[in-house]
Design the sequence.
């Protein structure tokens, strides 16, 4: 059994605690949160008897690894501390709030031989895996263009909407839907030209980039257009990605917690592929993380790889603010 401690007691701490426990190989040994009452309620819910309002006390429960599910700037402080304690890390979302901190995590993970996995579960999602298989097989022909749309109705009272706490919409939201899985399929972009606006919630301190369009140029002159943001009126279906090749195209409809479906367009056929029997991606990622602790697996969102999600998110912000195209190829 692996002893896993958790910091944070919100929505994603619940999702991932369940995913870790579903492996049958985990004991949640302690929970910490900002408020003792939330830590206690969450710990009780998952059958854990030890809880704190200070994450530093988690070490008294002798964990092997830490699940971190807190706002991103708080996360940076906790991940640095945890690596200094020689804990392995599963991080709820993006690796860090900026590239500088991400580089520090990468260095610490290497020098201390710790596993660090960023929480982009798409790379463990049957829909994205099937799309990757199609692209790798060459069935789409020469890749021409990529288009994605990911709108989420953000709560202006939550930390997600506070620029300082989240690090901004492109870092928080666009990195995971869908810069991270698109890079997995098409490689890293070479250049970015982006635009952003804020129309719905504009009070001081809230997100600078509420909605963003990023045009990305990938290897092989593949053109990408990614739209993401926190304005989502009504039940608008707005969670999709499309890969267009010279011979065929694939359109993905992933789910935020579960496995969606895809449409494969070839000739005059449109084939719908469902993945009802596939495992929940959070469970698959949790199992991959646990296997990597024994060295029997390599996770898919390593610090070295996922640093690029942050670089690209920062370039999107810089491009929009400066009104210029930014090259992502090192000189
Ligand atoms: N992969 C995905 O699909 C996905 C989706 C959504 C979010 N995420 C990521 O998941 C992570 C967690 O998001 P969430 O939606 O679960 O957030 P959330 O529901 O708002 O919960 C945040 C938790 O952090 C705790 N917290 C805040 N400040 C703290 C501090 N100083 N010390 C300790 N705990 C503190 C809060 O504690 P109290 O309750 O005690 O105040 C709360 O329990 C983020 O990294 C986010 O980007 C990933």
Sequence:
């Amino acid at each position: 059994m692996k002893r896993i401690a958790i910091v944070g007691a919100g929505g994603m701490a619940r999702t991932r605690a369940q995913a870790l426990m579903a492996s049958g190989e985990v004991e949640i040994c302690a929970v910490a949160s900002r408020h003792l009452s939330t830590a206690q309620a969450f710990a009780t819910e998952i059958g854990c008897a030890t809880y704190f309002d200070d994450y530093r006390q988690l070490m008294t429960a002798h964990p092997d690894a830490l699940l971190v599910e807190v706002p991103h700037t708080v996360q940076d402080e906790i991940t640095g501390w945890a690596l200094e304690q020689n804990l392995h890390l599963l991080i709820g979302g993006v690796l860090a709030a900026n590239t500088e901190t991400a580089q520090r995590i990468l260095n610490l993970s290497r020098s201390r031989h710790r596993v660090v996995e960023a929480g982009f579960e798409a790379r463990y999602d049957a829909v994205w895996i099937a799309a990757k298989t199609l692209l790798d097989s060459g069935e789409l022909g020469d890749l021409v263009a990529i288009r994605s749309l990911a709108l989420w109705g953000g709560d202006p009272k939550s930390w997600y909407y506070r620029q300082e706490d989240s690090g901004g919409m492109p870092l928080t939201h666009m990195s995971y839907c869908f810069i991270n899985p698109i890079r997995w399929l098409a490689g890293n972009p070479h250049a970015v030209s982006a635009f952003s606006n804020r129309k719905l919630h504009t009070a001081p301190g809230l997100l600078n980039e509420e909605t963003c369009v990023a045009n990305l140029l990938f290897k092989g002159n593949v053109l990408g257009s990614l739209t993401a943001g926190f304005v989502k009126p009504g039940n608008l279906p707005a969670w999709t990605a499309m890969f267009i090749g010279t011979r065929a195209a694939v359109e993905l409809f992933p789910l935020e917690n579960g496995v969606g479906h895809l449409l494969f367009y070839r000739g005059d056929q449109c084939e719908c592929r469902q993945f009802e029997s596939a495992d929940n991606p959070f469970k698959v990622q949790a199992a991959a993380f646990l296997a990597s602790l024994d060295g029997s697996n390599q996770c898919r969102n390593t610090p070295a790889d996922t640093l690029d999600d942050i670089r690209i998110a920062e370039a999107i912000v810089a491009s929009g603010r400066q009104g210029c195209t930014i090259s992502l190829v090192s000189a």
